Amino acid sequence: MSKAVTLSDIAKLCETSTVTVSKALADKKGVSSELKLKIKQTADELGYVAPKTQENSNNENIVGVLIPEKFMNPNGSFYWALYNDLVKLFSQSGYFCLIEILTEDNENELIMPKMITDGTVSALVSLGQLSREYIVALKRKMPKMILLDYYIHGLDFDCVTSDGYGGGYELTSYLIGKGHKKIGFIGTVKATSSIFDRYMGYMKAMIDNDLKVKDEWTLDDRNNREFIRIAFPEKLPTAFVCNCDETAFHAIKQLEEIGLKVPEDISVVGYDNYLISEVCNPSITTMNIDSRRMADKAVKLLISRIEDPLRDTQSIKIGGSLIEKASVASCAEQ
Questions:
Q1: The whole model's pTM is what?
Q2: For an engineered disulfide with 85, which of 34, 249, 295, 328 has Cβ 3.0 to 4.6 Å away?
Q3: CA angle 286, 290, 294 (to 5 degrees)
Q4: What pLDDT, on a 0 to 100 scale, did the predictor assign at position 72?
Q5: What is the pLDDT of residue 58?
Q6: Euclidean distance between CA atoms 104 and 271, whole angstroms
Q7: Virtual CA dihedral for 232, 236, 242, 247, nearest 10 degrees?
Q8: Minimal CA–CA distance to 150: which of 62, 79, 76?
């Protein structure tokens, strides 16, 4: 008995992907009329017979985006920008995006997203750090998945992140170049892999310049649910590296409340070049991260996973560029 013809057989002869073949045979959008005709003719010549599918199998072009609620600021956030870019870029490739916000209780209790349990989506972008336990459970249900803006050490996942280590190093080096020798860091270091990487970049720059990293100048900015008031010590450094622009915004406002002006009395830098860095007074010197480029890499990486579920995992880092604004002044203090 001869072997049944598969989508992969047709894809190889047409020099395209199995996803494109599937779209062409189902008369879906995203395939040129010339290529669609070629695929159909090849399928007929090979004697391809479409397998019987379940009623719920029409989800192949729907991608889920799962975001923990703690990262979704109602006034907007870097993740909203990433999500909007994902929607546009997936649409250009013939996919639809469905967002679901994951509550902290559901994460703690390992309750899977509804869009997965009801079979609505066929692949998933996990945007914003989830716990190791939840991600392991999630992958059992949804193997076609990538992590966006974080990774989990020791787990084998496709992921796209910004170069937090390099960004933290560059921001700290910039402050040192402005004459600052007493520099602190604001960010709950173990809250996310992104914050940890930025902190390690800050540490490396301090060590490379023979400067002390003081525990009392490494300050938390959040708990499991939300941002918290920053517990500034009585004796402050001359500058702070903040793990993100929103933290820098909160730091500037709280420093003003205790009678300090930025940058006249103390300098502050952020990370992301998110909208809040521009509307803050003073505007925040920051690392510009191209959210569209991150989203583009994530879309291509997930589609390649859909097309080849057995390929090796990939980890992609997106570099940033320092944007000078108004929150840093030179320091003459020795």
A1: 0.79
A2: 295
A3: 130
A4: 78
A5: 63
A6: 25
A7: 30
A8: 79
Q: Which two tokens stand for residue 162?
A: 């910004």
How many angstroms separate the Cα of 161 from the Cα of each of 9, 272, 317?
35, 12, 5
pLDDT in tens, 245-256: 999 999 999 999
pLDDT confidence of residue 334: 56
- Distance between CA atoms of residues 17 and 300, nearest Å: 13
Residue in the block written with tokens 């019987």: 52
* pLDDT higher than threshold 60 for residue 75: no
pLDDT at 73 over 80: no
